[in-house]
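SEQUENCE, STRUCTURE TOKENS:
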Amino acid sequence: MLKGKKIVLGVTGSIAAYKAALLVRLLVKEGAEVQVVMTPSAKEFITPLTLSTLSGKPVLCDFFNSGSGAWNSHVELGLWADAMIVAPATASTIGKMACGVADNLLVTTYLSMKAPVFIAPAMDLDMFAHPSTQRNLDVLRGYGNNIIEPAAGELASHLCGKGRMEEPDKIVALLKDFFLGSAELCGKKILVTAGPTYEKIDPVRFVGNYSSGKMGFAVAEECARRGADVTIIAGPVSVECDNPRIKRIDVESAREMYDAAMTEFPSCDAAVLSAAVADYRPAVQAGEKIKRKSESMVLELEANPDIAASLGAVKREGQRLVGFALETENGHENALGKLEKKNLDFIVLNSLKDEGAGFACDTNKVTVIDREGSCGYQLKSKKDVAKDIVSHLSKLLLLIVMFLLPFSAKAEGEELNATVTLNASKVQGTNTDVFKQLEESLNEFINNRKWTANTYEEEERIDCNFTFVVNSYANDGSFDCSLMVQATRPVFGSSYTSVLFKYEDKSIKFNYQPFDRLEFVEDNLDNNLTATIAFYVYTIIGMDLDAMGELGGSEFLNKAYTIAGNAQNLGDAGWRAGSSSNNRYTIIDDYMNGAMEPVRKMMYRYHRLGLDAMFKDADGGRKEITEGIRLLKKAYEDRPMAYFTKLFTEYKVDEIVNVYSKCTPEEKKSVVEILSSINPSLSGEWDKITKNNN
């Protein structure tokens, strides 16, 4: 999960700086690329030489290299990194980060950072508890930073209390969990409603409520963080979001929110309805300000459309619908009533009687209720509450729905049902037309080309997502992009789709000018972009056919292998044979190696004999999946350094945990032992199998 990730580690002047050495070592061991940035005072506690030796990179301390005069660009670091960790973070640095005091390279790097930031405070207990420190931490949380709470124990002052920097192994585990979740909902479309609605009485007055929208926006941000494409329909709120995966629709009234929700919901996989929608609106809205004419006034109200009930009425199989219930009495009973009446999958209950919950707070205390029971949570930040809610939703979206699909329609299109997204938010001040043209050209190139001579039924087409992030672009048309590729296959007999392949390609360099025609000729590779796309397409089709019949994808996997071999002269590191990095060549070389044949046979057992059979024979299908996992273990034992075996378990982890949620303790124990031996870095996830008592 950290393999290939680029991490900026900021080290400040704290006695806990000695822990930075272990943190660097653990990150590098996980396969991350670490760039250390130190404050001047940090050098008094640990030498740059130590951290440079462990990271394999020169440590950056100053704006300029005193020897060469070269500029250490904080802007480039902000664009380069996948995450930034400040550990240890002193009270002084925390204050500077909160207030934007850019007087050293670490703070300027933080202010330029495009990636998520994690801050691990380290200081004496009184300094940590001081109101100014707590206020600064609240400010940083409000900016979207992740605060890694310090531990309690003996401090450098020999006092005991909260202030010890969290241990490096726990920081690494937290970072791994973050990146594991960052693609969990990739390919899913989520609708969120947030904030109040205002129902006009006249041009200057309205009926409304105190909702701030913070809870809904936190849910939207968490869904986007896990890879979903999110549409948020927001009432009148001041909350902002800048995640490129979130599309915002601003509305004012309940009617406007209803119209937007009914329009957006049919194309979504799920909706989370956290908005506090007014139940009633004035029957008549005055065109002019109503003047005071008497000591009393009667305001006639009429009902607004019920958004949750309306969406519940049109919800199709496989869609998920989540509601909220803010109650002042009989909360559990009222929430259960809404759950049934509005056809919700689960409902989030909170009460105004709980201090710190409800409107105008940064915290919330909720109970998640579904038809199986309820799960209550303690008071926590709305950001953390959002994680709990989205985790519940994610499990539902991964759940196999057991019903038959009518496999009858023939495909008019080709093999792939691909979505191409190009994110150029890292590139500033550039003509956006070129990015729009490239995105359209890629969609046409992938979807309109006949890649095989096979006949695909409509329901058998392979859903794919190609998400490009532009790291750099020059006016001469040269691009450097990262690419997240994900493909899923339909599970026969259900509405569930299973991840077939998922991989993050860290860098693809190519040239493109607006209106260039994207072409691909297998025996004449002259375009790195189309060669890369064709490689992934053939790999995905080959794996899909391997999943349909034992070793069934050889023709197309050999095509991918040929592309990887012929692309050696394109000069892109992603093709480099014999490279120690995990690149395109490594993946296909691993998969097609003779010793890895059990992996290819595993694909058939896992998907066609396993998942496809589970809707009518859950035990039999699961046994085939277990046999497939045993084949995976055999391949791992023969080639323990092979990349694909671990890649498979990483993108299948949630699905595998779900598959074994209902089986005997002996079966759970056996499969956990196998999985832990294949990928011990996911042992915490495998343990969920044995802890699940369903």
Notes: Residues 528-548 form the longest helix (21 residues). The radius of gyration is 27 Å. Residues 448-453+487-493+500-505+513-691 form one domain. Residues 400-413 have pLDDT under 50 and may be disordered.
